[in-house]
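Table 4 source record.
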Amino acid sequence: MSKVGKTARRKLFAPIFDPRTARRRTPPATLRSPASGPLVDLTGELTFAPADLAKPPPAPLPPDNLLLAVANGREIMVRIPLPPPEELGGVRVRDTVMLEIDGVELLSTAKELVAADITNGYKEIPLPDADRGGEGRHSIRYAILLTSGDGSRHPGPNQPYVIDLTRPGDPSLADLEFPGAPDGFVTLDSIIDDGTNEPYLLATVDGYAGLAPGDEIIGYIDGNEETLHSTNDGNGLNIHFTQAFIESQGDGDKEFSYEVEDRAGNRSIRSRGKLLKVLVKDAIRNLAPPSVPSYDDDADPKVIDEDDARAIGGLQVIIPANPGILPGDDIIVMWGDADVGPTAVPDPTVVTPVSVRYAAILDAWVEGGNEDDTPVPVTVHYRVERGGIVAGRTATGADVEVNLYQAGGADPDPETPENENLGAPALQSGDANDPPNTISLTGFELDATVTIPWETVDASGTLLLDDVIDVQYDASGTIGPRIVDQDDVDAAVPIALTLPTATIQAAGSGSKALRYTVTRQLQQNGPNVARSPTQAVEVVGADGLPGGGTLAPIRVPVAAGLDPIDPDRLILAPRHAPAPTDTVDFVIPHYANQDTADTVVINVVAYDLFGYEVHTPPGLPEDPMPDRDMLNIPVTIVSTVADTVVPINGYDLLGFNPDPDDQSKWTAIHAHVTYKVTNTAGTVESTDQVLDIDGRAGPVNP
């Protein structure tokens, strides 16, 4: 062989053959790609051991290979699928498998395949804690190196995995809120039964740090736990405390709280407790409907009218006895949408009556109809409360019909017996000089006129044909009935009625109540009676005068009974006032209408001679003695029920003051004593009292 030939042979074979290395094989043509040359991507996905993986996130989220928190700090296994023969022409023993995390090859994970791997169809590779990265989202893939062939590298698909070591809700969980228990009471009313979920009490949470799909809510009642269903509506969490869980914990004061465990198994600290009063387990579930006697007792067609609705003490609703009701429980009647009560149950073995006031009945009638002559249906329910918590409520109510159509329309102030939309009546005295709604002494002797408004105060209605008007004056005076006729309807003006003098005088003086009613027949049952507001009428009659118009004569007790012949004769002598400052008591007898505001004066008018000499036959002339008169002596009334004692100086009466030495005044005279009383009704003067004044002996102590 020539030198040239030897050299050529070495150049030809030396670059591709080295006896110290394994012989390389050319991969099958099917593994080659026009774009990537000898590299072929594998499709099989690696898997983590189920014991190391959290459950998948809820649909439609894709799997994320979230590692359980308990896997932190220890080695975990990753299973690499070996490709089927058609992908690589069959892997062989001593081919190499390795991992790549976040784009970095982990040479420490490289493992040669052995025969058992080929048989199993997979290779398990340990992944140390130090190599899999810290908390967060990562990318992992595997690669197969055909080390027994051409040494080409074949990568698997990139796959995610997540490491989560943070407790949800740190540093603290949001508080629970209970929309169905706004007052802190959990009752059957609080339980939601939507036909899909198990009946539950809804709790809401605005959110918490780390909130993620798949978090598990663990609910607690007094420290006892149950895993709860929860949903995220975008504004926060809706959490279901099941009715069964609540009932298992019994009734009473209960503390509700929760914890969160995320998919990685990180568990939060517990939330702050929410204290609620629970009455669910022992709730009453079989309450019978109530009854309404004033409706039930009607002949058909039944209706609750004005008379029923304004019953003294309220319209009665009867609550049936029930063994689940306890003494001291409260009944709340729901008249339509209005709550009435509470009414305590003294004895649950018998029925409990509940009074419904007119206002609630009127509200339901107005809200349910057109305020016309049409009955309005109302359903009456009730609930039982125990310690402020609803212990039960009726499923079926009592259906009634209400018709409060009346002359005044809907009563603007239902708490009063009157319908204020009826205008008050007006009175004009027979004395044209008297102001409206007053009767003077002159008018007291004349008929008066009472006027009834035609329209309501708000001008929404009028009197109607066949309405019946009845007027009441004071306690017992009446006018009517007056039936509205067609002439009234045509005229459409206020209706005038005469109040007779006899009625006025029978009621007497003072402030008198004037009112009227309008009775209106209904199409069904009734009638309904509307009562007007009261008009006060101020009356000044003779009966309102002091003493009712007559005052008894004044009395002088010390001057009585001194004449042995005439016991009625009053004699005043010097011995009744021995000293210049001595007084003689004049007594004004208690009189009708006596008042401390009365103005009272006493008049002593003097005449010559004794009274019996001039006031009995044959009688002598009576000459006045004006210098001895004592006029307009003021009197103070200090009591409305007792006589009034007025002390008057005795020396003045006897004529000894101011000069006891003037013997011209030591005479025998008489006086006419009267008193006048004035009050708001007028002035009355008493009848005369004749008083003989005998001063002939002169002063006792001159």
